[in-house]
Each structure stands twice: as C-alpha cells, then as structure tokens.
Amino acid sequence: MEVLTIFLSGLITIISPLGVVVDSVVAGQLRSQVKSVEALAVRVDNTPSYQPVAGKVDRIRIASRGVEIIDDLRIDTLEVETDPLDININKIQNLSGLESIQSSLNKPFQGGIRLVIKEDDLNFALESDSIRKQLQALLDTILPPEAPSFNIIKLKINFMEKNRLALEIELKQNGEEGEAPTQLAIAAEVGFEIEQGKKIKLTDLSAIINDRKLSPRFANILLAGISDQLSLDIFAEQGFLVRVLQVDMNEESLNIAAFFSLTPVKEDE
Fold it and tell me: What is the structure's pLDDT at 53?
C-alpha cells in the first residue's frame, strides 16, 4: 500500500497554484516523484480549459513501464485512469501520508489501476534490506507466541499457472548464546484467491521442511495467520477503499486490476 500512497501523492501535486496542467508538466512532475521510470505517457482531459485554476481536472490517464516507486521494487507496467479530480490547490504543498492527501480533496478521488509485476523483479526486491525487514516483521506476527523465532535468510518466489506460487525459504532460529542455530530449508507451494475484492486468501498449502512434510494442522495455522494479515479493510477505516477486480498469474508475471477511492477529511477531524 505504500506504493499506491506515494503514487497518489505525486498525482495530486501535479495541479500547481498556477493552474498549469498539461501532459508534459504532469509527466515531469510524476518523474520527480518516483525513483525511476523507463517509459511514461500521460493524457490530461479537461473542459473547459480554465478548470485547473480551480483545482479541477476531468480525467488523467497514465501509462508507465519499468517504474520504481520505492527502492528496489520495479513495477513492469503501471496504468492509472482517474475519475474527475477536485482539490484545494492551497493545500497540496508538502503532502506526506494518507491523511495529508485526503485533507487536500474537495470530493472523493477515485479511479482504476492496473499493474504487472515480473517474477524476476519481485525476487530482486526480496533481496533488498528494506523489503526483507517488512517480511521479517510479518513472519514475527504470524508465528504462534509459543513458537521459536526465526530470521529470514533466503526467500525466492516462482510464479505458476492458475494463481499458485512456489516458494524456496531458508530460516535460521534465534537460539540461546553458544547454541548452534537451527536451520530450516522449506520448499512450498500455495494457491491464492481474492474474496469479495478485499481479502487475499491463501489456499492448499503443501510444504517440505528439512525433508519432512509439513503437517496439515500446522499448514492450516500458517494459512490462517497469513491470510488475516492480508485484508484491505484495514485501509477502508482510514477512508482509503481498495478493491481488487481481477488477478491473473502466469509463469512470468502477476497481473492485477483494482479500483481505489480516497475519501476527503477535514483537518480538524
């Protein structure tokens, strides 16, 4: 979600107090908001032409390739098409965080988004320190309190047909000082599906840990724990609605189509 928040912040700041909203200006502003982008095309629709002075735009369409919004995570394809945008141009300077973005809106900001992530790009990201720390925090959360703690040493994902993933994982147990650490080598396959557009549900987990098959009971515990962390409703409570419309995976890429809506908030709320 950090990726989408950063992108929306950049999208809103394209309307300057001078009311200059043309395709080239928007493209330049977006390039300055992301780490890098290989190709970017922008189309701004606005009638009448004086609307940007009031902070209004009819529609913005963006198509990009090879965009890196956060460090080390390359998104192969990112396309966005917005509904009419109406903001308070006096409040769009120095936007940071979701609530700051919402405070600049005069009405809900919504649209559609499509992104494609390649398997190779995702595995490169999984090697980065920043993303590895987030995954470590997720692992610490889903393991039962009575379970020993582990550090992630290796994580590789292989995309499969029919929305299934194969994973190669190496974990090292945090043992007592002087004790030899326990190493876990895990080979797993898991499927996933989207429930009501708002929850990623993991299904049909099979795993081998150090040459031993994972018991169905523990597999179900893991699936439940991880799935509970993957609900998009936690953002709806903040006025940020995201619904996944379609997910399709093949052996090379993950394709996602989604709808987003950001609700305005007043600064004193």
Answer: 54
Single-letter amino acid, residue 131: I
pLDDT of 169 reads 92
Residue for token digits 């994902």? 157
Tell me the whole-structure pTM to 2 decimals.
Answer: 0.81
The whole-angstrom separation of Cα 40 and Cα 124 is: 22
- CA pair distance 13, 29, nearest whole angstrom: 8
Per-position b or e across 68-79, b if 16+ CB within 10 A of its CB: bbbebbbbbbbb
Report pLDDT digits (tens) over 123-139.
Answer: 999 999 888 888 888 88
User: Across-strand partners of 148?
Assistant: none
Q: What would the DSSP string read from start to end of 70-115?
A: STT-EEEEEEEEE--EEB-GGG-TT--SHHHHHHTBSS-EEEEEEE
